[in-house]
Design a protein that fits this description.
alpha+beta, Uridine Diphospho-n-acetylenolpyruvylglucosamine Reductase, domain 3, Uridine Diphospho-n-acetylenolpyruvylglucosamine Reductase, domain 1, 3 domains, five-stranded antiparallel beta sheet, binds flavin-adenine dinucleotide
Length: 307
């Protein structure tokens, strides 16, 4: 039997933690090692420990945009719960740690009469995940409000201005940058507004979401919208609502939501996504690419999703 790597005892690392517990799809095999962090210095320690052990590491937020392989994730998964919140009204900014929930951030800012982050009520994950994917909703996104962010890399950390993230539609430079940079904290622009107006705005946005988006186990929109069209419209036009593979199915309420039921596997979700992608390519000549991130030990066949 091989012995566990010598992580600092302060980290309380668990071995073989089932990732199905930590993703909104509710599927995925175990992380070799897994640690929950609630303070930035612990997050830094976890990152530095993986580095020192020569072990791959993956920082995750709420797992609301991640399809984790049934074969699990190699190395250390860091479950980011760092949620410090520091409103700087005079500077027109809030400083927020990367494990803070986006929806909760919208609520806290509204309570304080700080506007501009209402869209975050529609984004289920963390601030770090949102910066990574330039998450957005209701006509706004992270790119529109980010002032700067503190980013960790194996060689050190530093504050980067928003333009350094090279944001695009659901894209940031973080997705391709060497060293897998980690967002520690973000500075987001806010503006003064009336608390009642902001509450009403959030209520209206929540109602809109409830009417148009399925509940249940999914990761939001599975495919990115192709230029000038909507992935959901294409999937719907081909009659694929309700299409199922094993325990994975295309939602009947929103055709770009792939959902899971009990007993589903990550492989079911992948196979379903591939069927959808192939049919849309054959019938419409459009190449859908996933917005959801594939994490962990996928075999080569998963690459077809990105082709
Ligand atoms: C019901 C539902 C509705 C949704 N609606 C929307 C929507 O309207 N708009 C939208 O944009 N998205 C939407 N999503 C997708 C998802 O909420 C966003 O992509 C979100 O930003 C993911 O955040 P997360 O913390 O859950 O990230 P995770 O799923 O945990 O991770 C996603 C990726 O981000 C990386 N990452 C996470 N934290 C960090 C960090 N601190 N530093 C560097 N990389 C990091 C991870 O390594 C991973 O590659 C929806 C999801 C659900 C379930």
């Amino acid at each position: 039997m091989t012995s566990a790597p010598p992580f600092p005892p302060r980290l309380h690392v668990r071995a073989q933690e089932p990732m199905a517990r930590h993703t909104s799809f509710g599927v995925g095999g175990p992380a070799d090692y897994w640690v929950e962090v609630r303070r930035l210095d612990t997050l830094r320690l976890a990152l530095a420990s993986a580095e020192a052990l020569g072990m791959p590491r993956t920082v995750m937020g709420h797992g609301t945009n991640a399809l984790v392989a049934d074969a699990g994730v190699e190395g250390l998964v860091i479950y980011n719960r760092c949620s410090g919140f520091d409103p700087r009204r005079a500077a027109g900014m809030v400083l927020v740690e990367s494990g803070h929930g986006m929806a909760r951030l919208a609520g806290r800012c509204a309570q304080l009469g700080l506007g501009g982050l209402g869209f975050a009520i529609g984004v289920p994950g963390t601030v770090g995940g949102a910066v990574f994917g330039n998450a957005g909703a209701f006509g706004s996104d992270v790119a529109a409000v980010l002032h700067s962010a503190l980013v960790w890399l194996p060689g050190g950390e530093g504050e980067r201005p928003a333009r350094a993230f090279e944001f695009g539609y659901r894209r940031s430079r973080l997705q391709t940058e060497a060293g897998a940079p980690v967002v520690l904290r973000a500075a987001l622009r806010v503006e003064p507004a009336a608390v009642d107006d902001l509450r009403r705005e959030l209520d209206a946005l929540v109602q809109r979401r409830r009417a148009t988006q399925p509940r249940g186990r999914n990761a939001g929109s599975f495919f990115a919208n192709p230029e000038g069209d909507f992935a959901g419209r294409l999937i719907d036009a081909l009659g694929m609502r309700g299409l199922a593979v094993g325990g994975a199915f295309v939602s009947r309420l929103h055709a770009n939501f792939l959902s899971t039921r009990n007993g589903a596997t990550a492989r079911d979700v992948l196979e379903l996504a591939l069927q959808v992608k192939r049919r849309v390519a054959d019938a419409c000549g459009v190449r859908l690419t996933p917005e959801v991130r594939l994490l962990g030990r996928w075999n080569a066949s998963a690459q077809e999703l990105f082709a």
